[in-house]
Each structure stands twice: as C-alpha cells, then as structure tokens.
Amino acid sequence: MKPSPATYLYTLLLLWLYVGMQAQVTAQTSLGVIWDVPATESNQTEQLQTFSEHGVQFLEIEASVSSNLQEELTSYPFEVMVRLSPAYLTINDTRDNRNELKETYFQSIESYRDFEALHSIGLLTNSMVQHPDFDPLFNPLLDSLRSASGTDLYFSHGEQWFYFSEPQQAFARQFYDLEFDEQDLISASGFLQSSGTNSPSAEIHFIHSQWLLQALNDYPEFSKSLLAYRTTGEWHLPLPEATPQALNINWLVLVLILLWISLALQFKYLPYIRPMMLRFFFAHRFFVDDILQYRERAAVGGSLLMLKHALFGGMVTYLTGRILLSEEGLTALLENYPLIAIAGNQYISLFFFAALLILITDLISIFWLYLPAKNLNHLSQVINLYAGSFYLDFILVTFMATSFLAGWSPILVLSLAAIFVLIWFLAYNLAAFNASTKMGQNRTTYLLLTIGLHTLVLILFLVVFFTQTDVLQVLKLALSL
Asked: Tens digit of pLDDT for each residue in 200-214?
C-alpha cells in the first residue's frame, strides 16, 4: 500500500521536532569561564587560547575591559559578558546612591559601545532584587540603561544569573569553587552532568578560570573530557582513584579538646574549683554565702571560665553562621560590615569577632555588677558569682558542635545556640540577684541598677536593631543568598 501524503508530512514534522530538540540540548550545554584577567598581555593571550581550545564559549569579566583587551577578545569566538560593580546593594544603598549608580553604569556602557564580542552586561551582583520595593525603585534606571546599551542586561543572585527581561528563569549558573582540588572533580562532574535536558533553565555553566586552569594542568583527563563535552554535549570524566586521606582534625574539635583539657587541669591544680562548681549547681545557697562572706577568694578559676565562655561564644557564632549563611551570604555581610572580617572573608572571622565582643561584654558586666554593690569589697566576688553558670557551656557547645559535624538537624543546632544566649543573659541577672541577698534596704536600688537597667538596655537594643532598616536589609540580603 502506497503511503499517503499525510504520512510523509507527519514524518517530516517528527524529524523537524527531533532536530529542534537536539539543537536545544546543544544550546543548553554551553561552557563559560569567569575570567580573572591576568596582569600581562602574554598571560592573557595564553589563557584565552587555552579557553578556546577547550570549547569555552562564554567569558565573564568582573572588571573594566581595556580597549586593547576588547580588540583581542574580538579575535576569538567568545561571547563576552561584563559584570559591573558595585555588588551586595540593599534597598537603601540603591535609593541613596541612585545618581552615582546611574553615572557609573552609563560611563561603563559607553566604554563598551563598540565592543563587538559583547554578549550582555551585568548590573547587580547579589543585591536585593527580590525585595518588593526594588522594582519600582530600579526600573526607571533600568529602562534608560536598556535604551542606552542596546544589549541584554542581567543580574546574579547566589549561584544563578537572570536576565532582567526574564527574572524568573535562570540562564546561567556557576560552579562556586575557586581553588582546584582533586576531590572537586566529583562535584564538578555532577555540575556539568546536570546540563542538557536535566537543567533546561540554565543554558550556560560557568567555572572560575583559576580552578579550570589548575584542573587542566593537574588532571589531564579533565582536558580530554572537556574536548568531548564540546562536541557531544555530554560529560564523562574518569574520576581519580580514591587515595587515603591524612587525618584531618576539624579545628572545632581541636579547640573543644583543648578546652576540656584545660578544665581537667583546673580541677587538678586548683583544688577549690571542683567543690565550688558542685555547690553552684547542687547547693547554691551555700555557694552564694561562701562568696559573699569571702571564704572563696581566688578569682583565677572564674576569670579562666569567662575567657572560655568567650571562646565558646565564638564557636556558637561560627556554627550559626555556617548554617544560616552561604559563602556569598557571608561575603555580603562582611562587605557591608568589614569590621567583622578580622580574619578576612572567612567564616572563622565570625568566631574571632564574636569571641572578642563577648569578652568585652563580660568585662563590662563585671564592673556593672561590682560598682553599685556596697557590700562587695573584692572584684573576685563578682567574678565568681557571674562565671558559675558558664560551666554549662562545656556540655552545651560540645553537643552543639557534635550535632553540626554529624550532620544532624540544623534546627537542633540553632536551638542550642538560642539556649546559649539565654544562659548568658540569665547569668548576669542571677549574679545580680545573688549579690543583693545581703544588702538589706539597699537591695531594691541595686536590683534596679543591675537587673532592671540591664533588661532595659537589652530591650532598647532590640528596638533599635529592629528599627534600623540598613542592618535588617543587610541581614535579609545575606540570608537570602
């Protein structure tokens, strides 16, 4: 039986759909590089040739592109995306610096007007573009920039990039690691394998140039896989054999061990510490009497306990930051508040900053308790009254760190962090109450100057904190990334 014309038409339609789908898959496997431009032209040319040989189709540059570099880039088959500064803008930043932003953007766009390899321009990096007040604020500027640029404009949020014209659909995403390690190859393979039909919304997959160049140099199989990826759009990488890893003790574990050892040494060489701790928890009235009557005079144990409390507080802040803040979120926080970045753009900066802040706060608390107390003649009395609650830190933070390292529920870790803060707050009030027990008619005045004023200061702090839109916007931005 001779096939009918409709059969031929149906067959051609299926063939056309198949070819179209194949073309779409190919478009979804584009490889891009976030390029840290070298200082010398020879290194620039060498890296560009490497990128071109390995099928890189897109380059993103997060700096100004000179006219000479623009000319050289035009000679390669790259589509270049230029990301403009600033980054990590809040709503208030955008509103207060609207004129400066407009001038900066227009000057940059004008410098790329004749750049033939230009694909698109990035305006905002990890800023508050998802806030409901952002569009009405930024859209007038965006409209004028679209008219002036004549090219696509995009923004990035976290590890995904979006065109302003399609803010709900990511067109690119990035592999976040900056420095290469062979262990990264597993996650990199997963990142590249997720292209194609498994990730239809992300057409471009970016890798940082530093990571890519080191991977090509240290693991030749990666180069072969990239070449195959270029032609087939499929990713297959022979992973290296697992090698025994050297014992890597987490610094949290090391600090915890040292703190517990120091407590054991205190029990051994300061014999009054153990009975004092037991009386604090199981015979509290006798503990308070011993302190107020100055039968317990040494302040060494209490002082060491305050120092350890500061270290424990730093650990609690570090763990909380690791749970709540991504690396981009941490960067957003530290960019807006560089004072926190004691150790650079690292999570451990949260540890050092919090430990220092808690130590200063504890010292203020000691003098706040001591100065109004007419019945206390020695600072060691206040130190011992105040520091007794901090023995709980050993158990609380050890359990908290164990929960975090074991990968247990983040809610559990955050709940323990909240309990730590509550104990810290109550330690001051408990010390003030205990110190007032022998004051007679002066007791009410002392409690008002300590517990009352302490509570009032905390309430005022919370009111100011939650009414400071700048602080809240930075926190919302950091937590959203």
From this structure: 455 888 989 988 898
User: H-type helices in 112-200, by residue range?
Assistant: 134-149, 184-193
Is 356:430 a contact under the CB 8 Å cutoff? no
Distance CA(327)–CA(339), nearest Å, equals 18
Rounded to the nearest 10 degrees, how much is the dihedral formed by the CA atoms of 422, 427, 429, 433? 140
Radius of gyration of the chain measured on its C-alpha atoms: 30
Q: How far apart are CA 89 and CA 158, in angstroms?
A: 13
- Looking up tokens 């206390």 gives 376
d(CA 162, CA 169): 6
CB 157: neighbour CB atoms within 10 A?
Answer: 20
Q: What does the DSSP 8-state code read for residue 345?
A: S
The token pair at 211 is 């990571």
Type of residue at 138: F
**How many CB atoms neighbour CB 375 within 10 A?**
15
Residue 33's DSSP bridge partners are 59, 207
What are 399-450's pLDDT values in tens digits? 999 999 998 999 999 999 999 999 999 999 999 999 998 888 889 999 999 9
- Helix (H/G/I), strand (E/B), else coil: 79: strand
**CA distance linking residue 99 with residue 96, whole number of Å:** 8
- Angle among Cα 368, 370, 372 to the nearest 5 degrees reads 80
Query: What are the two backbone dihedrals, phi and then psi, of residue 160, each rounded to the nearest 5 degrees?
Result: -125, 150
Residue 356 and residue 338: Cα distance in Å, rounded? 15
Kindly report the pTM of this predicted structure.
Answer: 0.83
Cβ 141 vs Cβ 121: under 8 Å: no
Cβ distance 188 to 224 under 8 Å?
no
Dist. CA 230–CA 211, nearest whole Å: 18
Cis peptide, bond prior to residue 86, ω within 30 of zero = yes
Contact 273, 350 (CB under 8 A): no
pLDDT in tens, 222-278: 888 888 777 776 767 776 665 555 545 689 999 999 999 999 999 999 888 899 999
The span from the CA of 126 to the CA of 83, in Å, is: 12
* Sequence-ordered strand ranges (E) for 84-165: 118-125, 152-157, 160-163
Separation CA 204–CA 223 (nearest Å)? 19
Residue whose structure tokens are 């194949």: 22
- 162: DSSP letter: E
Residue 170 contacts residue 212 (beta carbons within 8 Å): no
> Dihedrals φ, ψ of 234, to 5°?
-120, 145
Across the strands, what pairs with 173? 160, 205
